[in-house]
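User: Predict the full complex structure for these chains.
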Amino acid sequence: MSHHLLEFNDVRFRYPDGTEALRGVSFRITHGESVGIVGANGAGKSTLLLHMNGYLLPTAGFVTVGEVPLRKETRPEIRRKVGVVFQNPDDQLFMPTVFDDVAFGPLNLGMPPDRVRERVREALYRVNALTLADKPPHRLSGGQKSAVAIATVIAMEPDILVMDEPAASLDPKSRRAVIGLLNTFAHSKIVASHDLDLILDVCARCLVIRDGAIVADGPSARILSDATLLAENNLELPLTLQGRPAMGGNAPMSAPRS
Amino acid sequence: MTFEASFSGIGRLDRLSYRDTAVHRLDPRAKVVATMLYVVAVISFPKYEVLSLLPFFLFPVLMAALGDIPAGFIARKVVAVSPFAVFVGMFNPLFDPGTVAIAPGVSVSAGWVSFASILVKFALTISAALLLIATTSFPGICRAFRRLGMPALFVSQLLFLYRYLFVLMEETMRVVRARDLRSFGRRGTGVRVFVRIVATLFLRTVERAERIYGAMLARGFRGEVPSMRREALGPSDAVFVLAAASFFALCRLVPVPETIGRLVRGFTG
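Assistant: Here is the predicted structure of the two-chain assembly.
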C-alpha cells in the first residue's frame, strides 16, 4: 500500500533567523511501521515533525507522502493523510467543547453532519472518552486532554499518525493508557519522545537525530540498548533496560513482592 | 480582590452553566432572546420611574430559583460591578434639584429618584445577564448568537476568548505566584514588575497562538470555523419566550404596582 509511505529525501531546513535545523535528513517509512524519533533537546525533532504535514516546507530536498510530493499546493491533501498530535493538548484542543473539537477536522474535510457525528463518537469511543463529549476542555484532567487530543486526529482517519511527546506530563496510569491506545492503532505511527520506555513499548524502529541529521536508524531494541550511542545524544538507557539491582538486598521490604 | 479569587469566581460561573435544570435545558436562543427583550423593556422606562420597575425583579428571581443558582453569588457579582452605575448616576441629585411625585401625595427630589432608577435598572439588567451566563453554557450562547445572525468571525473570536481565558488565567496565576514567593511582601510588586509580567504573558500568548494556528491548519482549517447544529427549538422554548415576552409587555405598559394598589384600595375602600 504505497499511499501509507512517508519519504524524506535529503531534507534541509533553515529558519528565517539563519539557524540550520535540518541538514540533509533522509529516511523512508513504509505502511504500518511504527517509528520512534529520539534525540537531545534542540536536535531538530520538532522541526522534523512539522515537515511531515507541511506546516514547514523544506528549504531543500523533498518530502513525499504516498505518491504526493509536499508542495505548497499539495498541503491540504497531505494534511488529510498525515495527522499530527501536538505536544501540548491545550494547543491542540481549541474548540469550546470536546465534541466540537473532535468534529473540527471531519467538518473541514466537508463530511455531512451525520457522518461527522458518527466519526466523533467512534474516535471518542476508541480513546475511551465518550462520556466527555459535552465537556469544555478546561474541565478535563491531563490524561483526558491527551486522549481527546488523539481522538481529534484519528477522527480524520489519517494514513499516518504523527505524535510529539504523547505522554509528557501524564501520571503513570494515564501514560500506560496512552501506550495501550497507541498499540491498538494499525496506522503507520511516528512518535517523537524523550520517554524511551514508551518508544520501546510502541515502536519497532527508532531514528536518532542529532544536530539536524540522522545518526542512527534501526530496530528500537538494538538502538535503545546501545548505551554509548544514547549517551552521545544526551539520552540514557530506558529504565526497563537499566537492570537496577533488586531493592534492599537482605533487608526485607514492607511491600509484597510480585 | 486577589487574582486567584476573581479567577475562581469566573470558574464558578462557568461550572454553574453546566448544570442540568429546566432553565439550563431551554434552548440558548430562547434565553438570549428573552434576556434581550427584558433588557430593552427595563431600559426603555423613563428616567424618573422606580416603582414600575419593581415587578421586573420577578424574572431574575425566577430564573435563579428554577435554575438552582445561588442568589447570594449573583448578588455579590452585581455589587462588585456596581461602582460603574454609581459613578454614572452620582451627580444626578446635585444637578437635578426639582421634585417629582412618586406616589399620590408623596414627592421627593427628582435627582435622587433618577439616581435610584439608574441603580435599579442596573441591578436588573446585570443580574439578568449574569443569570443568562450562569444558566447557559458559553458555547451555547455563542451558537445562539450565530444563529440569530451575528457574523461568524465575531462568534469565533468569542469562542476562542472563552477557551483560552482559562488557560491564560492559569498561566497568569503561576507567574503571579512565582513573583509573590520571591518578593517577600514588599519589593517586586511595583509597577515595573507588573509591566514585565504583562509583557511576558503577551509574548507567551503570541507563541501559543502560533502553535494553535498550526494545530488548526493540521486539521484542515481554511478560514472558517465549522459548527454543527445541535439544538432544536421545542414547545417549552416557545412557551418560555412567549410567557416572558408577555410578562415584560404587561409590566412595561401597565404600571403594575399602582394598579395593584388601586385594586387593594378598591377592595378596602
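Chain A touches chain B at residues 50, 53, 55, 76, 79-80, 83-84, 86, 88, 90-97, 100, 103-105, 107-109, 113, 116-117, 134-139, 152-153, 156 (CB under 8 Å).
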